[in-house]
């Protein structure tokens, strides 16, 4: 039997309905119903935990940077760098807290570009600042 004969044969081996209508009285009416509500599962909780871990990491970096700066006598440069670390940490803390609060909603909003940029800048600058204080 050739391939061209398969679809013409009909029945279970050949013809299929590609229109999506499901035939007369078939399952085509189900496509008109509203989609089921989104079940986020554990994704918001995992995201909140990731924000908490990142906040804890930023806190440790800021504390270690401040400790290194103030341990052997505080120079003006070290004090300014320490204050900058503190401000960056507070900035990240604000962004993270807002995001974790947003994630408690049933359908949380997406993270805005501005908040993502602020979190990225604060994290990167805090890491650079803490590394400079330690070295």
**Strand element count:** 0
Radius of gyration, taken over Cα atoms and rounded to an integer in Å: 29 Å
Q: Helix amount, in percent?
A: 55-70%
Segments where pLDDT lies below 50 for 5+ residues? 2-15, 17-23
Number of helices: 4
State the major sheet.
none
User: What's the SSE pattern?
Assistant: HHHH
Average pLDDT over all residues: 76
The computed structural class is mainly alpha
CA(first)-CA(last) distance: 78 Å
- Beta-sheet strand percentage? under 5%
Identify the overall geometry: elongated
What does it look like?
It is a single chain. The chain has 135 residues and is an all-alpha fold. It has helices spanning 5-9, 43-71, 76-102, 113-134. The model is unreliable at 2-15 and 17-23 (pLDDT under 50).
Q: Can you describe this structure in just a few lines?
A:
The protein has helices at 5-9, 43-71, 76-102, 113-134. With 135 residues, the protein is mainly α.
Q: Could you outline the blueprint of secondary structure elements for this entry?
A:
Elements: H1 5-9, H2 43-71, H3 76-102, H4 113-134
């Amino acid at each position: 039997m050739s391939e061209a004969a398969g679809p013409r044969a009909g029945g279970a081996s050949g013809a299929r309905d590609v229109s999506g209508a499901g035939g007369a009285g078939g399952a085509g009416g189900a496509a008109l119903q509203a989609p089921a509500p989104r079940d986020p599962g554990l994704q918001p909780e995992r995201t909140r935990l990731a924000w908490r871990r990142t906040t804890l990491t930023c806190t440790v970096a800021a504390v270690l940077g401040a400790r290194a700066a103030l341990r052997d006598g505080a120079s003006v440069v070290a004090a300014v760098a320490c204050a900058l670390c503190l401000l960056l940490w507070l900035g990240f803390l604000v962004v993270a807290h807002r995001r974790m609060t947003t994630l408690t909603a049933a359908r949380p909003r997406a993270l805005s570009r501005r908040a993502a940029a602020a979190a990225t800048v604060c994290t990167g600058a805090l890491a650079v600042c803490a590394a400079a204080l330690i070295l």
